[in-house]
Amino acid sequence: MCGIVGYIGTKDAREIIINGLKRLEYRGYDSAGIALQNCENGDFNMYKDKGRVAHLESITDFSYSSCLGIGHTRWATHGVPNQENSHPQTSNTGRFFIVHNGVIDNYKELITSHLNDSVFSSETDTEVIAHLIERYSYTMSVNEAIRKTMSLLEGSYALAIIDTYNPYRLYACKNKSPLLIGVSDDGVIVASDVMACVGYSDRFVPLEDKTFVEIDGAKYHIRDIIGKEVVHKERPIDVDYFNIEKGEFSHFMLKEIMEQPAALRTIIGTYFNDDGSVRVNRNILDAIRTSDRLYIIAAGTSMNAGYVGKELFETLAEIPTEVHIASEFAYNMPLLSDNPLFIFISQSGETADLRAVLVNIKAKGYRSLTITNVKTSTLAREADHYVEIMAGPEIAVASTKAYTAQIAILSILAYGLESHRMDLRKELSKVAISIENIIDRRDYIEALVEEYLTKRNCFYIGRGIDYYGCLEASLKLKEISYIQTEGFAAGELKHGTIALIEEGTPVIAIISQRAIAKNTRSNLNEVKSRGAKTLVISTKSVHQSEDQIVVDDVYESFSPILTVIPAQFIAYYAALHRGYDIDKPRNLAKSVTVE
Ligand code: F6R
């Protein structure tokens, strides 16, 4: 996590870095900092503090011009969020400024073996890097000192580095954590995400692991750790500025919930031919078809989409599918089938837990497919194949449109393999309209939230695919409203968890599956008779007159794509009424680039 931005060129470094940090705040927002060169007198100034980028902006001196700087927005890993632990961190004498995204696993060993006479002013692992670079710079060039330091670091890092002795250079390097450079005729940006470059650069170059960049004005050299030039390709930046702004919406989350019908229509337009057949690279469909088992690897919301994917692959394409928590799978790999295909689902395409698995299975020679919203991301670049979910930039930390887009893509992949039992294109178009119908009734859902979500805890219950929907619904509610919420298999309640139900506990049931609707209703009655305040989200064909939220019927295996919409609104309004920061909930970050 953490976002880094650096700039060198003829434009105002401060504006580019502060705006870039605002756009990267989704990566962490415990503290923020910036180091700038004052072009007028050559001095370097550093501003940093606990708190958001807006606060950093308010403490930054805007009275001088600056053409070189680095900035950081932090998600704390080592040391509490305070001024000392904020980045930039500096070397012993203050010669080097650095900003860091990642975790250095061996920083304590490095202190003992290389820096035991150093005085540290923070608790961060990052400061060790600054001290090492300075130490080596006494006996070698800065370029070599950075590469030498890289060779000692174990763990993940994306670094931007300023040498105050040479204000005409900006340095950057990376391993595991994402980093790219944005290029334009007036200068070069170093950033964790291309979003920081939109409007300032027209091309970008994603950097590979263990590479090092030396930037001199608008010229740059990318080298590997031993100093050999790396062949690279500049790519156009095609992100629309409008897509990364909130516009008329009060929150990105609300905007992104509302964008779901449009995202589905983009997917339909991209992945279907005029005759209704799917338009997906044959090699991808063949890779799925020829595997004897699919292993879906994901985290959080993407994993919840993966569960629906399992249902789709098993019912539509009859391929056995397992879903695994990436962070568990990375270090506890189960026995695999003879011919597996690994499917990585990740909105950001940067999640470190997934990357650990990808590196591992690639080394073993297994095939991989990444389903992601960011086609230039690490997971997209490093897997054998990738499919883009076309949801458009998702800025709110709580994922909404990426979830529904992931399910739509999974349904298209599964459908591409089967002998068409239904018209999926038509079905997805129906879903888009049905989502619009729910959006139109959001005020009603807001009123339900006021009436029902009055306690510190809540349960979502469902069976089968509705249970998978409950997992996502509960994740949404807990992460932004801080109501302790569990998604539970309805039938499992009575084996222990029902003990938690007391007078007024909100229990929300999702009911969309004909075969098991009655069973879920029985479980609902069980909690009702123990005092629970129940609310039902059901589909038309299984609804009962007292159900509060009734959505349209869709092909049963992807009903979570529709039942999740009221749940997203429930989470949104519950957080809104509690006055929380909806787009940036506490302790979280959107792109989780540490394991
Ligand atoms: C929750 C949420 C997270 C992410 C998870 C994986 O709203 O967004 O649970 O789904 O951190 O991130 P990606 O999909 O980027 O791999």
From TrEMBL:
It comes from the Bacteria. The keyword Transferase applies. Gene3D superfamilies: Glucose-6-phosphate isomerase like protein, domain 1, Glutamine Phosphoribosylpyrophosphate, subunit 1, domain 1. PROSITE patterns: GATASE_TYPE_2, SIS. Residues 2-218 form the Glutamine amidotransferase type-2 domain. Keywords: Aminotransferase, Cytoplasm, Glutamine amidotransferase, Repeat, Transferase. Its EC number is 2.6.1.16. It catalyses: D-fructose 6-phosphate + L-glutamine = D-glucosamine 6-phosphate + L-glutamate. GO terms for biological process: fructose 6-phosphate metabolic process; protein N-linked glycosylation; UDP-N-acetylglucosamine metabolic process. GO terms for cellular component: cytosol. One of its GO terms (molecular function) is carbohydrate derivative binding. It is found in: Cytoplasm. It holds the Pfam family GATase_6. The keyword Cytoplasm applies. Its main location: cytoplasm. Residues 284-427, 448-585 form the SIS domain. This is Glutamine--fructose-6-phosphate aminotransferase [isomerizing]. It comes from Candidatus Xianfuyuplasma coldseepsis. The gene is glmS.
